Amino acid sequence: MLTIKEIKNILLNSDRLLTEKLAGEAKSITEQFFGRTISLYTPIYLSNYCSSHCTYCGFNSHNKIKRIKLSLEEMRREMEKVSATGIEHILLLTGESYEATPLEYLKAAVNAAKEYFSVISLEVHPMETAEYRELFSSGVDGITIYQETYDSIRYKEVHLSGKKSDYNFRLNAPERAAAAGMRYITLGILLGLSDAAEDLLELFRHLEYMEKTYPGVEYSLSFPRLRNIKGKEFARSDIDDITLFKIICLARINFPRVGINLSTRENQNMRDNLLGIGVTRMSAGSNTSVGGYDINPANSQEPQFDIKDSRSAEAIMALLKAKGFDPILTDWRSINRQQ
Amino acid sequence: MENVRNNPAENVDDKPLIIADTIFNNRFFLGTGKFKSKQELETCIKKTGIEIVTVALRRIDLERHEENILEYIPHSVKLLVNTSGARNAEEAIRIARISKEAGYGNWVKIEIMNDSKYLLPDNNETIKATEILSKEGFVVLPYMFPDLYAARELVKAGAATVMPLGSFIGSNQGLKAEEFIKVLINEIDLPIIVDAGIGSPSQAAYAMEIGADAVLVNTAIATASDPVSIARAFSLAVEAGRLAYLGKLPKEKNKGNASSPLSGFLYE
Predict the structure, then answer these.
(1) Burial (0-12, 13-18, 19+ Cβ within 10 Å), A339
(2) Least CA distance to B91: which residue of chain A?
(3) B95 vs A335: CB contact, 8 Å cut-off?
(4) Hey, what's the torsion of the CAs at B133, B135, B138, B144, to 10 degrees?
(5) What is the domain extent for residue A219?
(6) CA nearest neighbour of A297 among A101, A92, A110, A81
(7) What is the ipTM of this complex?
(8) d(Cα A315, Cα A98) in Å, to the nearest integer?
(9) Number of compact structural domains in chain A
(10) Rounded to an integer, what distance in angstroms lies between the CA atom of residue B94 and that of residue A298?
(11) CA B178 to chain centre
């Protein structure tokens, strides 16, 4: 494992040749283990109710935004719309509200999603093992849960109240999800929230621990950059494109077989150029507003974050093919559902 | 150029490879992952006269929403569905049954890996799955770590072949497990198909020279700049290796054979 000094030396180094060298190494490893394929998924936001107060997030409970929670009928309309684009892997998201979006609500959403998609992941509040197990049995294949920052002091500063302010409960959530049988687990840090090098090292350590403890899980990493919501400034540092690029290369070099996601928070130029360097999974045709695909397409509400790449799933698939990548839509089907 | 292969059996005294009563004249098997397009995969199959390909059920869109990979595999080619993604015997069995129900036949390549870092096959679980699926009438080709005891258990469990890894899957490292594969070649009476880690045509030829019955390649072809050329090179190499094996290639010698320094005195 790299030391903190080595990571800092790489991230802060202004030598262009070093960046090129990292990219070459990362590209070669990615090609070896993933070939020329990119898996695609699309997020559906089910609810923006939230009982936590995270200073950087547009959904936080202190923000005076219109709160929406999709009904079963509304979810189905959203799912039908996304499914029509050919997407098979869906990521269902909610704000972190145990009251507004309890386990039963999530299970109902998963049951609906099964009719439209072959892979279902959830990005919701952290839960207990038994609850994850129920979700797994219902047909959930993967859990996405970002620690945001591994700096526990900084964590307290930005997660002011609600369940999310419990650092340890969140930290141990991936392990509980793995114990419950989840097949895919995505970890991540919110870049800009704290010291990037320190967070990256802790993320690597966390992943290394997970790989040793639950080797059967397929892990992925995400590196979202903090975007400002409503003009407020919450970032501690600005993570520029070069730093993000190096972080993705370092993740690939240190974890050759781990998936790396890139969301539509990143602009077209970054996304197109990061293809094949380390990224193996991209969101496509994303809308980060609740009901944004069919129910409230007019953007009558605040999204969780601003999308920088608004190309449709169809356009992304065409781009991938033009660049010599096979867009992978079907990469798993929940065999639990066949029982 | 269309199919350039010649059947070694036509040239020398060879028998075709037979797996569960099916005859294969081409001993080069292809994996279908990692290609940059399905058209390229199709061209590789057609230009090399491949007779059997393995496809992960996880990559087949059973509902056919997208361009389905199976549309790019000629009907004349034997489809060997694999259980990639299975973490234990139970999951592999379930995948095999889904595949059969979906109409993809009763041939299955068991792949069970409960380690996403090294992707090493779990022999114990593979034996369990092989036993159950064989009893259900499946033709089972198990991917395994080259361990003699496990191979013997697979034979008892009803496997149709044994498919030991040459080295880490996708690594292009070649026959790191050479000595152990030789043990299987010597001791196991089923066809031995070297399945993972073969990274170059010369490595494939070598696997055949030492007596493997067939070789399965994927990454080295799918990730090459020109997969079609590389696929043809592999096909020719497998054939060359087979001929070398049949012709009983003389052993490599370090130096010229001098006299008989140890026993020569007896004849003086």
Answers:
(1) exposed
(2) A335
(3) yes
(4) 50
(5) 4-338
(6) A81
(7) 0.81
(8) 36
(9) 1
(10) 44
(11) 15
B263 or B221, greater pLDDT = B221
Residue (of A310, A293, A332, A337) closest to A79 by Cα position: A293
Residue with tokens 């234990």: B88
Ordered by where they begin, the domains of chain B are 17-250 (3.20.20.70)
The residue of B37, B60, B122, B230 whose CB has the most chain A CBs within 10 angstroms, and thus the best one to mutate to test that interface, is B37
Under 8 Å between Cβ of B155 and B186? no
Question: Model-level pTM?
Answer: 0.87
Rounded Cα–Cα distance for residues A213 and A97 (Å): 29
How many beta carbons lie within 10 A of that of residue A77, not counting itself? Answer: 14
Tokens of B61: 């869109």
What's the gap in Å between the CA of B110 and the closest CA on chain A?
16
CATH number for the domain including A285?
3.20.20.70
Condensed to tens digits (0 to 9), the pLDDT of residues A165-223 reads 899 999 999 999 999 999 999 999 999 889 999 999 999 999 999 999 999 999 999 99
A261: left (phi over 0), alpha (psi -120 to 50) or beta: beta
Q: Is B16 on the interface with A (CB under 8 A)?
A: no
Phi-psi region of B174 (alpha: psi -120 to 50; beta: other; left: phi over 0): left
Helical segments of chain B, H only: 8-11, 38-48, 89-101, 123-135, 148-157, 178-187, 201-209, 219-222, 227-246
Q: What is the pLDDT of residue A336?
A: 64
